[in-house]
Amino acid sequence: MAIEEDVIVIGGGLAGSIAALEAADSEASVRLITYKKSTLRHASGLIDVLGYLDEEEPVADPFSAVSKLPDDHPYSIAGEAAIRDGLDRFDEAVGDTYQGNHTDSNALVPTFGGAVKPTARYPAAAAAGLASDSREMLVVGFEEITDYNASMLADHLAAADVPFAVDGVELNFPGTYANDSRVTRFAKRLDNDEDVEYDGQTMGAREALADAVKPHVGDAERVGFPAFLGDEHTAEVRSDLERHLGVDVFEIPMGPPSFPGMRLADQMKDALDEAGVHISAGNPVIDYETDGDEIDAVIVDSKGREVPHYAEEFVLATGGLVGKGIDSDRDGTVEEPIFDCHIPHSEDRYDWFEQEAFGDQPFAHFGVRIDEGMRPLDADGNPEFPNLRAAGAVVGGTDTVTEKSQSGVSLTTGVVAGQRASERAAKREVSQ
């Protein structure tokens, strides 16, 4: 049976979610189609707008730096107001679980490698760990987690000339565990405050963890843990640890599996449900149909059946090279696989890379080019389809990883794509 909506968004990451929320806010009927789990689950959970330009020093105020970007940058095309609109839509979706909306300035958040990352929004669970805070810090690590070393993290922070004394300690997490899924097991145990054996006694996991850390606190006024302090009850876990330790407790973002990323993905889904967005998950978009020069429907592979999904407007938010929203091969082809939108690139694969490992890599700029309405442009600079928008990592023109702007570009292009799609869908309905 065919499905009909006002707006269809393809892709369930940050950009797709924001586009769908923005479109739904105008009372348009919106469907979000997602094939795989959101890449948010592997991300840090931090929301970067613009962390770096060409200089080595981080950007203090991303809004004041936008004017320095080239004309074909997504921010330059969308405009500063759109960046703020994207952040506002995000703030509305996550509520008080995130902080940073009180200022235009970037916050400096320590990460698990010991780097200090400039970011515009950060989980409330990370707030007590900001590098601009001068209070002494203790960083806690666990022998069971090999990709996170607290002593190394503390050394790197000290080398970055942070304005506080910082020390690191490696402990064993209280209780016994199987050899697999340790991080998720730790989080679940803290979430449920399960009983563990510690120091010859049976006690709740939260109290046992605090007792293990307490002898190492010293003069520290805040203690940082890897970001697995629960999943569904993070604030409660952190509050209990603070009560037992007598100091502020914060999480330090770490690599996959990323609990801040998973929590954010869950919050986006909750916001979509509350906004009345219909979600189709687990089935890929494999083709499309046109009516004249416009897209009439996308074709979804539903367990071997090709099901058309009709809409007035469509938003492409399938991700970049990592998310497979853009494909490449050894023959020098770079393509957008659903609508075959134009992606500027050299046909010589050797031109995709710079000799310098940390140089400006051309492949990092791959993606569709857009106009002010977020419509992908063909090789001649004309819209591929009047009713197709693009948002997020599928949009090219800049290296968002180097700039630390990936989330911001997703929010900005997503909010404009959703807004323009709903506006045009409404006009078309009136004219019909």
Automatic annotation (TrEMBL):
GO CC, alphabetical: glycerol-3-phosphate dehydrogenase (FAD) complex
Pfam hit, one: FAD_binding_2
Record's keyword terms, sorted: Flavoprotein, FMN, Oxidoreductase
EC annotation from Swiss-Prot or TrEMBL: 1.1.5.3
Every FAD-dependent oxidoreductase 2 FAD-binding domain range: 6-408
InterPro entries per record: FAD-dep_OxRdtase_2_FAD-bd (IPR003953), FAD-oxidoreductase_2 (IPR050315), FAD/NAD-bd_sf (IPR036188), G3P_DH_GlpB_su (IPR009158)
Entry keyword annotation includes Oxidoreductase: yes
MF term (GO), any: glycerol-3-phosphate dehydrogenase (quinone) activity
PANTHER family xrefs: ANAEROBIC GLYCEROL-3-PHOSPHATE DEHYDROGENASE SUBUNIT B, FUMARATE REDUCTASE
NCBIfam families attached to this UniProt entry: glycerol3P_GlpB, PRK05329.1-5
UniProt-recorded name of the protein: Glycerol-3-phosphate dehydrogenase subunit GlpB
Lineage start: Archaea, Methanobacteriati, Methanobacteriota, Stenosarchaea group, Halobacteria
Gene: glpB
